[in-house]
């Protein structure tokens, strides 16, 4: 009934890309330049409730208990406008979103955030979307969010063409990898907000970095080799490809004009500890996103040792062990 359809709560988890998305070819539609492949985590969920509020004067957005303002609020309102357009509706909404990690720190809060908002928003406005359509919708908030609709491993297609064709062909889908269940150890060296948003940093990289085209080209090879390595459950191959893909992405940013550098001295200390682990015979491979934090892929049996090594390298950091996690889901009334 109409009244029951007014509110919906969704939970989504962040994902970490093993093959990175960096750079858009359409900023308005949020169409990536390259395909990406990620693992959804079982930690740091975002819980979002969207309630349609016909009596309200406008949208109300609450982020971790405080009213959202400025750009964060604007991104949510623009996303709701898109949901309303698809649903042929116009009533305002109240959005309450809770992150279990700091927002905007390169810990994929935008991925879990827009995946949860897409699912809760679609349900609240009575849109019946299949997982592909939900993933395309989440992409409009943040391209990495398209992947958090799914659990485990997911690939996000950059799609083809322009305009409506690009919009229709760019979405994520699961990559079934039943025999590969690694740990991902996260060293949160700095939980503060990043100096340059990923949106700005990617635009600058695409427009000014002479290294960007070669990284994007190499990324295609990385992706096909990654798929084969995942299929074989070969942690060393998966890790090597993920590490070179991430370091290459950071190289494109370092070559941007002016340079975008997310790595801090602690980041480098943690990267050094990963090399030492490997020298000691522990398979461990690093990846990094738009922030100084380091995520290290390893065997579950080595996760505690790896966590200890990362913490020793950056004693101020918080270290958390993640495994593959579930896709976005709606919460039932009973929960
Ligand atoms: O979707 P955004 O704007 O949060 O972009 C994030 C891009 C990286 O995290 C750096 C890489 C990725 O594929 O997640």
Task: Provide keyphrases for this structure.
single chain, 335 residues, alpha+beta, Ribosomal Protein S5, domain 2, Alpha-Beta Plaits, six-stranded mixed beta sheet, four-stranded antiparallel beta sheet, 21% strand, globular, binds (3R)-3-hydroxy-3-methyl-5-(phosphonooxy)pentanoic acid
Task: Describe the protein.
The protein is α+β, with helices and mostly antiparallel strands. The chain has two domains: 4-178, Ribosomal Protein S5, domain 2 (2-Layer Sandwich); 183-322, Alpha-Beta Plaits (2-Layer Sandwich). It is 40% helix and 21% strand. It has helices at 70-87, 109-124, 131-141, 145-148, 163-169, 198-208, 212-232, 235-254, 265-279, 303-313, and strands at residues 7-12, 15-19, 24-26, 31-32, 36-40, 46-52, 60-63, 66-67, 93-99, 153-156, 172-174, 183-188, 284-288, 294-298, 318-322, 329-330. The strands form four sheets. It has a six-stranded mixed beta sheet with strand order 8-7-9-6-1-16. α1 packs parallel to α2 (109-124) and α9 (265-279) packs across α10 (303-313). The longest helix is centred in the middle third of the chain and has 21 residues, at 212-232. The model has no long low-confidence stretch (mean pLDDT 95). Bound molecules: (3R)-3-hydroxy-3-methyl-5-(phosphonooxy)pentanoic acid.
């Amino acid at each position: 009934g109409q009244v029951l359809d007014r509110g919906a709560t969704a939970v989504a988890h962040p994902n970490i890309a093993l093959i990175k998305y960096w750079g858009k070819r359409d900023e308005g539609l949020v169409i990536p330049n390259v395909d990406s492949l990620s693992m959804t985590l079982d930690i740091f969920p975002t819980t979002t409730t969207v309630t349609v509020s016909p009596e309200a004067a406008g949208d109300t957005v609450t982020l971790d208990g405080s009213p959202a303002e400025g750009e964060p609020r604007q991104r949510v309102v623009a996303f709701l406008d898109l949901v309303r357009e698809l649903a042929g509706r116009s009533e305002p909404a109240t959005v309450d979103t809770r992150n279990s990690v700091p927002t905007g720190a390169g810990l994929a809060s935008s991925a879990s955030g827009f995946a949860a908002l897409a699912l809760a928003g679609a349900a609240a406005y009575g849109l019946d979307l299949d997982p592909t359509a939900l993933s395309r919708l989440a992409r409009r908030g943040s391209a990495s969010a398209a992947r958090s609709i799914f659990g485990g491993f997911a690939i996000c297609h950059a799609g083809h063409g322009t305009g409506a064709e690009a919009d229709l062909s760019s979405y994520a889908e699961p990559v079934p990898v039943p025999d590969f269940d690694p740990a991902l150890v996260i060293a949160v060296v700095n939980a503060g907000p990043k100096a340059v948003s990923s949106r700005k940093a990617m635009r600058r990289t695409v427009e000014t970095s002479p290294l960007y085209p070669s990284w994007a080209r190499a990324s295609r090879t990385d992706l096909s080799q990654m798929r084969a390595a995942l299929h074989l459950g070969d942690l060393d191959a998966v890790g090597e490809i993920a590490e070179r893909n991430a370091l290459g992405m950071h190289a494109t940013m370092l070559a941007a004009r002016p340079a975008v550098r997310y790595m801090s001295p602690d980041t480098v200390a943690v990267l050094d500890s990963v090399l030492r682990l490997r020298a000691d015979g522990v398979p461990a491979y690093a990846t990094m996103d738009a922030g100084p934090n380091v995520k290290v892929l390893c065997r579950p049996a080595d996760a505690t040792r790896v966590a200890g090594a990362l913490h020793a390298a950056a004693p101020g950091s918080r270290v958390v062990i993640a495994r593959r996690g579930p896709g976005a889901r709606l919460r039932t009334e009973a929960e």
